[in-house]
């Protein structure tokens, strides 16, 4: 991927110069093969369920169904949403400022409509919101109401950086127990909902440590899109936790990992086989970096055998994903 054209010195710089540019460059074919590759890599690492927060402001309509179809082809479960935001104007360009706007934009309306259509058609997902600081109060309220209509939660990034420091105050009257609050690094109050801790992403963006062990909320473990190997993510989260609290034990992070099963209760019957006898031991897994997945059964179907997916051709997936990555890079250049 071409390097950012401007210096990246802060979290907002990272969003503006990298991630939001990537979002804007995506089209449906890129989305499909990106989801296909991500699902395949998740499966090969022993991850059988994905919670996805997607944004593609110039390719919104049908994007969630595209992701669902790619994951189904691989044989993996997915709960997805479209991340609604007011940061894009009606011409698909970033607003000159990212502080909350006074009213909902057309881009946000299209994002809500995509969530509505996907959920109404039987899709498994939530209502997505990018973050409070890129959304008007009108948009936040509309997302909350849509989630209630479909009896699902809102999936939203919360106080990831100091730029979203007002998130707690703005969401306090809206957040429900079935919401997913992603990051919560700088959250200054108790909010209803599950907090999803993303240790590696937070370190990568230099936003600080979320101190999840000090929160009263139920904690889940996530990656924020950096890989799909949840055992490896648990090791990193444990190392970060120990740096913060030397008395912490791996069982704490293992609970965060297992809490995700509340989102996918059927996954309790999935079978993942490792080439290591103690892969289900928190203490062993925390310090063993070379555990490899050999086989995976999802809903009784063998979808990974001897380390290779059974429903898709790994080499084809990688080749097609590379083609789409090169298309993306051309647009970014």
Secondary-structure map:
Blueprint: H1 11-25, H2 28-44, E1 49-54, H3 63-74, E2 77-84, H4 106-120, E3 127-131, H5 137-149, E4 154-158, H6 167-171, E5 180-183, E6 194-197, H7 199-204, E7 219-221, H8 230-244, H9 250-259, E8 271-274, H10 282-287, E9 293-298, E10 301-305, E11 308-309, H11 314-332
Parallel strand pairs: 1-2, 2-3, 3-4, 4-5, 5-6, 6-7
Antiparallel strand pairs: 8-9, 9-10, 10-11
Description:
- Strands 1-2-3-4-5-6-7 form a seven-stranded parallel beta sheet.
- Helix 3 links the parallel strand 1 and strand 2.
- 40% of the residues lie in helices and 16% in strands.
- It has one domain: Metal-dependent hydrolases (TIM Barrel).
- It contains eleven helices and eleven strands.
The CATH topology is what?
TIM Barrel
Helices and strands: which structural class? Answer: alpha/beta
| Biggest sheet architecture | 7 strands, parallel
Gap between N and C termini: 8 Å
Element order: H for helix, E for strand: HHEHEHEHEHEEHEHHEHEEEH
CATH-derived architecture: Alpha-Beta Barrel
Number of domains: 1
Task: Write down how many β-strands occur, each being a DSSP E stretch of 2 or more residues.
Answer: 11
Biggest sheet, spatial arrangement of strands: 1-2-3-4-5-6-7
Instruction: Quickly count the helices.
Output: 11
Helical coverage, percent range: 25-40%
Low-pLDDT residue spans: none
**Average pLDDT over all residues:** 95
Overall spatial form: globular
Rg for CA atoms: 19 Å
Proportion of residues in β-strands: 15-25%
CATH superfamily: Metal-dependent hydrolases
């Amino acid at each position: 991927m071409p390097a950012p054209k401007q210096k990246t010195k802060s979290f907002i710089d990272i969003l503006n110069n990298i991630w939001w540019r990537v979002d804007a460059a995506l089209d449906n074919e890129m989305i499909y093969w990106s989801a296909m590759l991500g699902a395949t890599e998740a499966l090969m690492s022993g991850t059988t369920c994905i919670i996805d927060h997607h944004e593609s402001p110039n390719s919104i309509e049908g994007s969630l169904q595209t992701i669902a179809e790619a994951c189904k082809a691989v044989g993996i479960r997915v709960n997805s949403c479209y991340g609604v935001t007011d940061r894009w104007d009606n011409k698909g360009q970033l607003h000159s400022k990212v502080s909350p706007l006074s009213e909902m934009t057309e881009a946000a309306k299209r994002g809500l409509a995509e969530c509505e259509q996907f959920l109404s058609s039987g899709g498994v997902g939530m209502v997505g919101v990018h973050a409070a600081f890129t959304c008007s109060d009108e948009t936040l309220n509309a997302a909350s109401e849509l989630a209630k209509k479909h009896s699902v939660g809102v999936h939203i990034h919360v106080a990831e950086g100091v730029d979203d420091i007002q998130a707690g105050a703005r969401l306090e009257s809206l957040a429900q127990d079935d919401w997913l609050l992603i990051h919560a690094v700088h959250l200054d109050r108790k909010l209803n909902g599950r907090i999803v801790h993303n240790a590696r992403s937070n370190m990568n963006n230099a936003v600080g440590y979320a101190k999840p062990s000090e929160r009263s909320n139920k904690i889940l473990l996530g990656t924020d899109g950096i890989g799909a190997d949840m055992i490896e993510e648990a090791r990193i989260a444990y190392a970060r936790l120990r740096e913060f609290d030397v008395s912490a034990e791996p069982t704490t992070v293992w609970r965060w990992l297992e809490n995700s099963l509340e989102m996918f209760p059927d996954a309790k019957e999935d079978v993942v086989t490792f080439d290591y006898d103690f892969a289900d031991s928190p203490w062993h897994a925390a310090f063993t970096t070379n555990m490899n997945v050999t086989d995976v059964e999802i809903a009784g179907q063998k979808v990974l055998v001897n380390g290779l997916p059974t429903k898709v051709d790994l080499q084809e997936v990688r080749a097609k994903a590379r083609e789409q990555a090169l298309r993306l890079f051309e647009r970014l250049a």
